[in-house]
Structures are given as structure tokens and as C-alpha cells.
Design goal:
eight-stranded antiparallel sheet, alpha+beta, flat, 3 domains, ten-stranded mixed sheet, 14 helices
Length: about 525
């Protein structure tokens, strides 16, 4: 039994509720939910099938065993016909019923639950907080400061007004590694140190690392990956994509919402931090982090008559102490920790607005490229004879950006391998085939996100795998200029600037496992 019903989810207090589809697979006999997904309303009906497969293979209900249904009942004629076509070989009866009482009951229960969820930000403070976040995004301190460069913020109220007492935060900037962009505002120095010490104290599994992460005592501000990939093309009026504020606490865990007093405190701290960056960020970097200190008067977010005195100061002593924690950790322990840490998949190598494609070039063009391109990284493995096509990933961009990319690859030791790895955005209900380069220094770089079930990509991947099998695992990366006009996707010989002949690896050989887009979320 399935429902594909419109579910209204309140994302933030001052934003219009937006519609998403809630996909439910319910066992009509046991009256248990076997699988549920919330997906954007524009996702195709293929998402229904993906949820069905999970309901059959990995049901979420406790003590529920994997099973295939004999009969499925839906309340939508179009969905009925779609499922009949997709499931015709599984001997499952697909029936229609205008009314499904059990699903109606579950749906209304979900609506009541969603309606009880607190807003992510107080309605009268949300606009101001997003504007502050927007300012900090354009400060981009992660370009020059790593997470060990701690900045202390001391807030004191001008009088005994309620709602905001004295607070001290120790701010860590996230983003230099290109993974998660934002700020952690630790409520105590002890929590800041303990988090790093526990990570290095002993070998930890991914589950233990997650538990250590949840033991932090801090507020957080993070920016969604969509904003990172859009190169910051947003404005306060159009809500910077995916800005999330929330709290981590050892007792209550993680929540992606702030009450009125918390929002006022965090806003004051972030306003002062932005002013500090405007004054001093150009004088700071990961190697030069001297003592700097300034005092600011910040208006209270909800009480314009109340002034807040905020002192912002660098803590080079604390930065040195945190660096020493890593430096003093035995090499064998760091090596033991390394396989269990989440691998860094960088997405800052390929120039923005580049054209990339997965395909092949004829062997005579490969021979010409070997002789003509300015940069050629050959393979030491001989290709089999009588090949017709050589599989390549093509990156096409402007000449200056292409040369910068080639220089970056040279600094990274060239290109070592090309692979594809599964990825999933559970929030959007989308599965991807992630195109990845591994450079000579061992770093992994994302070059493309392909929708997993897109027919064009499915066919391209099939041909890619077949051709790599014929070349004994050798493939290529070609970099070309001429990203605009008729040359896009169809460069001429003199448009090619570099050829890298590399290995084609499977996701299993790299050992990443399925990668999931991680966000702080209140659901």
C-alpha cells in the first residue's frame, strides 16, 4: 500500500511553507510503515520505486523482515499505470482504490507532528540573522584561517536587562578543507579542547566519531553545499541558500533551531565577528595570527534600547596549543585514525561554469593529441591493439582557467586515476553518480555530479565501463579551451591543451562507500 501525498513542511518561521512529496510504503496487513521518504515535489515517479525497493529490501519498521508484496494498492491512477509498467516482471498486482483509510490516518498524524515542530529561528529575528550570515559568507574567513585559529568573543550587557547575560564564545572557522563551511561557537574552552583530544585519543569507527561530534557544546552556523557551488550568488533578500543555525550539546544532542534568547546572543556575537573581519581579516592568515583585539557596541536584536559591549580577540596561544595536540600525537596513532576519518572530497579544482562530459575519442585523435598538446601525461601501460575508441573525461573551460587548472594539477602531482562513486542527497531524495579524479598527492576531487538514473548518463556509463575494459583499465582526461559558442562540447584539435592518461578505478578499489550529503537538519 502506498501514498504519494503532498506534505506541507514549515522550514522557517517567516518563510512560506513549501510543498514536498511524502512517499509512504505501508504494510496493509501489519499496519506498519516499511519505508518513508520526503522528496521535492518535482522529483519524478522513479523516487516512488526507489522507496519501494527500500521497503522490500531494508524495511524501517522494527522486527520487519525483507519481503516482496503480492499486491500494491495506490490511490492515483497515473501512479498505478507507472508501477504496472515498471514492476511487470515481478508478478505483483497493482490495484487502485479511491480511498485508503490507513494512509489517511498516517498522513494526518504526520501533519500534526510537523505542525508541532518549532521554527528554526524566531520570526522577528530570522531576517536579521540571515543578513548577518550573508555578510559572514562574503567575509570568507575560511580562505585564510583554518579551524585551529580560534577567535574569542566576550559579550556583556550594558545593564541588567533580561534575556542576555554575559557570554564567552571560542569561535572555530570551518571551510579551509572545502568540506563544511561555517562557524562553531564553543561555549567553553574545555569543550573545544575535548573534541580534538577525543578524536585523537584512540582509533575510532565512523559511529564513534559521530558520537564524539555530538558531545560538543556549541552553537553552529553552516552554509549549504548549494551555496558553495553557486559561488555565493545570493543576497539577503533571497535568503542565502541553506543557512542553518543551531546548537550542539552533550545532553540534548543536535538541534537546528534557536529560541529567542539564543538567537539574540548568537546574533550579537556574529555581528561583532563580522565587524572584526572587516577591520582585521586582511592582516591574518594560517601562518600569521598575531594578537588582535577590538571592542564593539552591538544593538540588541530584540531591544533597540539595549546596547551590548562585545570584545573580539584572536587567541594565538590557544591556536598554538591546538596545533600542538596534533603535533604531539604519535604518527602510528594518526595513521591508525586516518582510515576511519571521513575522506575529503574537494570540489574546488574544476573551474566554475566549466563544461564536462563523459565519452570517448577515436584512436587517431588520441595519437594526434599525444603529439600536439602542450601538456601530456603518458601511461606506462601499453594499450591493446585494434582499439577504436579511447574513453575520456573532457573538461572544457576558458583558456586562462584551463591553464590555471593545468598548473593546479601539476602542483598536485598530476592525475592518478578517474573513478565514479555513488552519492546521495537524502534531503532531496536524489541519487548521484559522482565523477572523481584522484591526483598524485592522493587527494580526491569532484569533477561532476550525474543523476544516477538519467538515461543519457546510464548509457554513457555503460559505454565507459565497456571501453575501459577493452583498454585494460586505462582512460584519459583531456582539458580544452573554448567553453562558449559552437566549440562547446566539440573542441577542435588546437583547442586541446592537456592530455592525462590514467587508470580507471572502481569505487570498491577506493573504498569510499556511498557518500551522503550531510547537513544540519531539524527533522
Amino acid at each position: 500500500m502506498l501514498a504519494d501525498r503532498s506534505l506541507v513542511v514549515s522550514i522557517q518561521a517567516d518563510a512560506a511553507a513549501h510543498h514536498e512529496d511524502c512517499i509512504l510504503w505501508i504494510d496493509g496487513v501489519d499496519e506498519t510503515i516499511r519505508a518513508m521518504d520526503v522528496v521535492p515535489s518535482d522529483v519524478g515517479q522513479e523516487a516512488v520505486v526507489r522507496t519501494l525497493l527500500r521497503a522490500m529490501e531494508s524495511p524501517s519498521a522494527p522486527q520487519t523482515i525483507p519481503a516482496r508484496p503480492q499486491k500494491i494498492v495506490v490511490s492515483d491512477r497515473e501512479l498505478q499505470f507507472f508501477l504496472r509498467g515498471v514492476l511487470q516482471d515481478l508478478d505483483i498486482t497493482i490495484a487502485y482504490a479511491a480511498d485508503l483509510p490507513l494512509l489517511n490516518e498516517v498522513y494526518h498524524s504526520l501533519q500534526e507532528f510537523v505542525g508541532r515542530q518549532p521554527p528554526s529561528l524566531p520570526a522577528d529575528q530570522a531576517d536579521a540573522l540571515r543578513a548577518i550570515a550573508f555578510d559572514l559568507w562574503h567575509d570568507a574567513p575560511w580562505d585564510v584561517l583554518d579551524e585551529e585559529k580560534i577567535i574569542q568573543i566576550d559579550l556583556t550587557r550594558a545593564d541588567d536587562a533580561e534575556n542576555l547575560g554575559s557570554e564567552t564564545f571560542y569561535v572555530s572557522v570551518m571551510g579551509m578543507l572545502g568540506m563544511e563551511f561555517g562557524f562553531l561557537l564553543y561555549r567553553s574552552m574545555e569543550s573545544l579542547k575535548a573534541f580534538r583530544l577525543e578524536l585523537l585519543a584512540a582509533e575510532q569507527s565512523p559511529e564513534q566519531i559521530e558520537q564524539t561530534f555530538l558531545q560538543q557544546d556549541c552553537f553552529f552556523l553552516t552554509f549549504d553545499q548549494e551555496l558553495v557551488q553557486s559561488n555565493g550568488e545570493a543576497s539577503p533578500e533571497h535568503d542565502p541558500l541553506g543557512v542553518t543555525l543551531g546548537s550542539l550539546n552533550p545532553l540534548e544532542g543536535m538541534r537546528a533551531n534557536l529560541d529567542e534568547a539564543e538567537a539574540a546572543t548568537v546574533a550579537a556575537a556574529l555581528m561583532a565577528l563580522h565587524q572584526f573581519f572587516e577591520q582585521h581579516l586582511e592582516s591574518l592568515d594560517s601562518h600569521h595570527f598575531p594578537v588582535m583585539r577590538d571592542r564593539y557596541t552591538i544593538p540588541h536584536l530584540t531591544n533597540s534600547d539595549e546596547g551590548l559591549s562585545v570584545v573580539v580577540a584572536t587567541r594565538p596561544d590557544l591556536a598554538a596549543e591546538l596545533a600542538a595536540i596534533v603535533d604531539e600525537t604519535p604518527d602510528d596513532l594518526l595513521e591508525a585514525l586516518e582510515p576511519n576519518l571521513i575522506p575529503v572530497l574537494r570540489d574546488d579544482l574544476i573551474p566554475k561554469k566549466s563544461f564536462y562530459s563523459l565519452g570517448a575519442i577515436p584512436m587517431d585523435l588520441l595519437d594526434s593529441l599525444r603529439a600536439e598538446v602542450a601538456v601530456h601525461q603518458p601511461t606506462d601501460q601499453a594499450l591493446p591493439k585494434k582499439l577504436e575508441w579511447f574513453p575520456v573525461v573532457m573538461i572544457q573551460t576558458s583558456r586562462p582557467k584551463a591553464k590555471a587548472l593545468i598548473d593546479s594539477l601539476r602542483s598536485a602531482g598530476g592525475v592518478d586515476a578517474i573513478l565514479f562513486n555513488p552519492g546521495e542527497d537524502t534531503f532531496a531524495g536524489m541519487c548521484y553518480d559522482l565523477g572523481i579524479f584522484r591526483t598524485g598527492d592522493g587527494d580526491l576531487h569532484l569533477f561532476g555530479e550525474f543523476i544516477e538514473d538519467d538515461p543519457v548518463h546510464v548509457e554513457a556509463r555503460k559505454k565507459w565501463d565497456q571501453r575501459c575494459k577493452k583498454t585494460k583499465g586505462i582512460c584519459g582526461l583531456v582539458i580544452a579551451k573554448g567553453v562558449t559558442g559552437k566549440a562547446q562540447g566539440n573542441p577542435k584539435l588546437d583547442d586541446f591543451l592537456a592530455l592525462y592518461e590514467v587508470r580507471s578505478l572502481s569505487a570498491h578499489e577506493i573504498g569510499l562507500g556511498a557518500l551522503e550529503l550531510v547537513k544540519f537538519n531539524d527533522t
